[in-house]
Amino acid sequence: MAEFGFSETHDDLRRAAREFAKKELIPGAKERAVSNRIPNWIIKKIAELGYIGLIAEEKYGGQGMDMTSVGIVVEEFGKADIGAAHIVLIPTQFCALLKSGTEEQRQEWIPKLCKADLLPSLAITEPDCGTDAAAIKMRAIRGNDSYILDGEKAPVTRAMQSNALIVWAKTDCNAGARGVSCFFIPIDTPGISREEIPYAGHIVLNCGAVFFDSVKIPIGNRIGDEGRGFYMLMDRFDVIRVLLALVALGQAQTSLSEVAAYVKSRTAFGHPIAKFEAISFKIAEAATKLDAARLLCYRALWMRDQGIRHSKEAAMCKWYAPAIAFEVIHDCVLMMGHYGYSTEYPLIQRMLDVMGYQFADGTAEAQKLVIVRDLIGRKFLPYTE
After folding, report:
1. CB under 8 Å to 72, separation ≥6 — which residues?
2. Does residue 214 contact residue 148 with C-beta atoms inside 8 Å?
3. Angle at the Cα of 356 (from 354 to 360), degrees rounded to 5?
């Protein structure tokens, strides 16, 4: 088993991703954060440099790298632009899901994905069920050679910009988690309509509701065996949650770096405010918390790459890192005072964006249940009626 840490390849990748973020993503990032789509030139550039297909096998046009590599790129992009980070994050999940698919599906969809000709969104959550993914109500009724889907998915990240959806639906309503299946559906399939959701944060991710009205798809668009969709999804959550945590930490790290520079130039009572312990100690504490959360995330990804079960560790990342990131950015706003509170600076928008990661793909409370179940057993979970 490899030791925990970063390889020379990982270090080279981080330098390249950081340089790309500095050159291409940081300019205009503040303006893009409040626009309702990710510019096509950014998507294409990320694809051209191979960042979209990081874990895809080389024979499909990918890089054949590990999940730690994805975390590195997501974190570096997240420091500048959450939209760019998600362009890497979501396709990674689709590539991984297709390991449960057919060779024909991999040959058809992964090369398009790596070139950014295919921009998928994950359609999991429904208005009446979020964290309880097994309780979804969307139906997928099977015919001779097709399925008919009816229902609603909301919210769906990047729903208004994606050209395909990875959808989870019930193929057997009496089988609970064993009745959920996974499907690939082009967004222009007849019967699909979309409506934008006006969020205060994650504006660039252009979230929306997607409606399915007798949407007919071929059986060949099902990914994996019928009834295995829930278990495929839980496996993906163990990765998605860590990657989202790294995006949040990236946003907080950038905010802390900006404020560290600000407090050295801002004066009060004849001294730079960095000389006051109330400020300098807050920066020291923030840096420590961010580093601890970051190490927690990379340990979870390392465990993934080593084939070690890491549901507990992923849950720790998902509740802790976004909470710390939000706390750090909030403190950065206070340290900058009215400047930080103004829309002239990106701190408030980052704080709103990071707040979204505190409940996206699983609330903090749900993550703590995962941790408790692992540590002291399922029978000691909090009692529910």
Report:
1. 6, 10, 13, 14, 17
2. yes
3. 125
Render pLDDT for 215-263 as a digit per residue (tens, 0 to 9). 999 999 999 999 999 999 999 999 999 999 999 999 999 999 999 999 9
Structure tokens belonging to residue 197: 């959701």
φ/ψ (deg, to 5) at 223: -100, 120
Structure tokens of 357? 């990661």
φ, ψ (nearest 5 deg) of residue 137: -110, -15
Q: What percent of the chain has pLDDT over 90?
A: 95
Q: What is the mean pLDDT of residues 37-58?
A: 96
**H helix intervals, the chain:** 8-20, 29-32, 40-48, 67-78, 82-97, 103-114, 229-265, 277-305, 311-336, 338-341, 347-357, 364-376
Give the pLDDT score at 145. Answer: 96
Any residues with CB less than 8 A from the CB of 99 and at least 6 apart, and which? Answer: none
**Which has the closest alpha carbon to 177: 146, 209, 136?**
136
The Cα–Cα gap between 172 and 177 comes to 9
d(CA 70, CA 92): 8
Write down the residue that tokens 């930490």 correspond to: 249
User: Is the separation of the CB atoms in 66 and 6 below 8 Å?
Assistant: no
What contacts 274, CB < 8 A, 6 or more positions away? 260, 263, 264, 280, 283
Environment class of 334 (CB within 10 Å of its CB; exposed 0-12, middle 13-18, buried 19+): middle
Question: What's the pLDDT at 380?
Answer: 84
Please report, for residues 57, 58, 114, 161, 186, the alpha-carbon distance to residue 53 in angstroms, rounded to integers and kept in the order given: 8, 9, 5, 19, 20
Q: Where are the alpha helices (DSSP H) in 21-120?
A: 29-32, 40-48, 67-78, 82-97, 103-114
Closest Cα to residue 247, out of 122, 377, 130, 80? 80
CA angle 248, 45, 6 (to 5 degrees): 50
Backbone angles phi, psi at 80, to 5 degrees: -110, -40
Whether the CB-CB separation of 81 and 25 falls below 8 Å is answered with yes
Q: What structural domains does the chain harbor?
A: 8-118 (1.10.540.10), 121-226 (2.40.110.10), 230-380 (1.20.140.10)
